[in-house]
DNA sequence: CTAAACCTTGCCGCCGACGTCAACGCAACC
DNA sequence: GGTTGCGTTGACGTCGGCGGCAAGGTTTAG
């Protein structure tokens, strides 16, 4: 399969596939004329990459998962390195959830305060009977 | 007050202050020799900017808050435009919290699955009496 | 023979909030 | 008058995951 077909089947672009290759994640052969040739297994790899990117992983984080797939495992996350990354990412997400919760509270309070102030101003402007 | 002093008092850099100015957020006068001169109120403005940046606002989002302060209000969030931004941001954060919660669940499940698989492999390798 | 549809490498653009020079001017002190 | 420490503008670098374009080669269909 050539790059265009893989791109279409993986739901991405040829540019993206070349980018993954440049970063060592996808490894095509080359046909006589220099065209990239991918075997079926690479489709699996590309889908794994896309799936992990979608939940916030960087390409560096993804490398162990690809290696795990290439090592013949049914899923990319059963190898020690992958598990380590999963643990780290889970911790990062938990951390981020905490901070985002704080931000939410601050936003909520600030909004409540602003609205209260506006009500007050409104009352003063129109008079207490307003 | 000149740019160095303001930077120090606001806990930031001169580069940052010039950047804010280039984006219309801070407005110094100029002394005869061309130096930027800030009055005390600008310290307040810069602190507002920093505070909002820290909770994930972009400079564009912050502009209404600065305008609100400049209009003579005690806090930058009581004006209609600021309130609108606060509402929008709160919605964005809620949205992000939802998606991050999904991601967390997926990470957690994936991790649990990976560990279960490894246990199984381990047992098979060492034998059921392992 | 030519056009169309593939493919190749290479390089610039993007977003956003700055950091980090470069090359210069101004002010003050000894 | 030389040094030090302020200030000025301008322009390029950063990070990451690509998009998009240029300038060419290959293959296939008509």
Q: How much is the radius of gyration of chain A in Å?
A: 25 Å
DSSP strand (E) fraction of chain A? under 5%
- Mean pLDDT of chain A equals 92
CATH topology value of chain A: Multidrug-efflux Transporter Regulator, Chain: A, Domain 2
Q: State the domain count of chain A.
A: 1
Terminal Cα span of chain A: 74 Å
Q: Main sheet of chain A, how many strands, which sense, barrel?
A: 2 strands, antiparallel
**CATH domain class name of chain A:** Mainly Alpha
Overall shape of chain A: it is: elongated
Number of strands of chain A: 2
Structural description of this entry:
The structure is a homodimer of 130-residue chains. By secondary structure, chain A is mainly α. Chain A contains 5 helices and 2 strands; from the N terminus they run H-H-E-E-H-H-H. Chain A has one domain: Multidrug-efflux Transporter Regulator, Chain: A, Domain 2 (Orthogonal Bundle), CATH 1.10.1660.10. In chain A, 70% of the residues lie in helices and 3% in strands. Chain A has a two-stranded antiparallel ribbon. In chain A, strand 1 (29-30) and strand 2 (36-37) form a beta hairpin. In chain A, helix 3 (40-54) packs antiparallel against helix 4. Chain A binds chain B through residues 55-56, 75, 77-78, 82-83, 86-87, 89-90, 93-94, 96-97, 100-101, 103-104, 106-108, 110-111, 113-115, 117-118, 121, and chain B through 55-56, 75, 77-78, 82-83, 86-87, 89-90, 93-94, 96-97, 100-101, 103-104, 106-108, 110-111, 113-115, 117-118, 121. The first copy, chain A, binds a DNA duplex (30 and 30 nucleotides) through residues 2-4, 13-16, 18-19, 23, 33-36, 53, 58-59. Chains A, B: It comes from Micromonospora tulbaghiae. Chains A, B: It holds the Pfam family MerR_1. Chains A, B: InterPro entries: DNA-bd_dom_put_sf (IPR009061), MerR-type_HTH_dom (IPR000551), MerR_fam (IPR047057). Chains A, B: This is DNA-binding transcriptional regulator, MerR family.
